[in-house]
Specification:
Elements lengths: L3 H22 L6 E3 L6 E3 H17 L4 E4 L11 E9 L1 H5 L6 E8 L2 E9 L4 E6 L4 E3 L2 E2 L13 E3 L12 H9 L5 E2 L4 H9 L5 E5 L3 H13 L3 E3 L12 E5 L4 H10 L6
Parallel strand pairs: 3-4, 10-11, 10-12
Antiparallel strand pairs: 1-2, 4-5, 5-6, 6-7, 7-8, 8-9, 12-14, 13-14
């Protein structure tokens, strides 16, 4: 593996540059377009930030590959894949809601080795290196010690196909709601997972996310002592379509039990 310190510097510099762009255009009139789904927005800032990130990566590592939300640059035979979301929480961003971030993860031979999630509006920088722990603004973080679902604060999100109840996404939400549990919906999966990693939430679930939404966050969470699986408790892949993340306590199994009820009549 190449010098990890150089990799980290490029990642930190790229996150800083993207964050600077976020704040330069925040609450300004910007060009907005829509993807295949009408509610799935992309702005000129998404594109500018991803372009800047790619430029910084290629200036130091021209042989690496990049998978970005706005473009797939995987054209080389390389052991390195940078997974980039230039703005996670674009809908929030366009409505001047300060819950958005840049998320960058790096895979080496298919394994996540470093990741950063940086929230420019709140000044929070989450970071993790494989085997070295997770950090928020330089201070090591850990998941909460809450053991049971009844005592938990949950967070989730909905896919753009929610109106069609994609993978029972509405049913899952209702089933947790019927238990009387407090649930938040912030609009940024990367921050959801990082806030779980630092103990603000106990569990997170969602369907139909993409690798760039979760790559960095999942490394940060596991390095903070959390657990990530699919809804059945099987090993999680950032390329999968179901994510269940928790503080790793008994409530993870309780979450699985509630999620399973939506499929009983399938």
């Amino acid at each position: 593996m190449k010098d990890i310190e150089k990799l980290k510097k490029v990642m930190f510099d790229a996150a800083d540059e993207a964050s600077n762009l976020h704040m330069e255009y925040f609450e300004k009139d910007i060009a907005i377009s829509r993807k295949q789904n009408y509610s799935d927005l992309v702005t000129e800032v998404d594109k500018k930030a991803e372009t800047k990130i790619a430029e910084l990566i290629y200036s130091s590592f021209p042989d690496h590959n990049i998978l970005g939300e706005e473009g797939d640059y995987r054209k080389k035979e390389s052991d390195y894949l940078w997974i980039v979301d230039p703005i996670d929480g674009t809908v929030n961003y366009t409505h001047s809601i300060p819950i958005f971030c840049v998320s960058i993860g790096l895979e080496y031979k298919g394994e996540l080795i470093i990741g950063i999630v940086q929230s420019a509006a709140t000044g929070e920088k989450f970071y993790a290196e494989k085997g070295k722990g997770a950090f928020l603004n330089g201070k090591q973080i850990k998941v909460s010690n809450i053991e049971y679902l009844k005592d938990s604060l949950l967070v989730t999100g909905f896919p753009y196909g929610a109106k069609d109840n994609s993978d029972h996404c509405i049913d899952h939400f209702v089933n947790f709601l019927k238990l009387g549990l407090p649930i938040r919906r912030l609009g940024s999966a990367a921050l959801d997972i990082c806030w779980l990693a630092c103990g603000r939430f106990e569990a997170f679930w969602e369907v139909n996310l993409n690798a760039w939404d979760v790559a960095a966050g999942c490394l940060i969470l596991t390095e903070a002592g959390g657990r990530v699986t699919n809804f059945k408790g099987e090993p999680y892949s950032i390329y999968g379509k179901q994510i269940l993340a928790s503080n790793g306590k008994s409530l993870h199994k309780e979450m699985m039990d509630v999620l399973s009820t939506a499929y009983l009549n399938d």
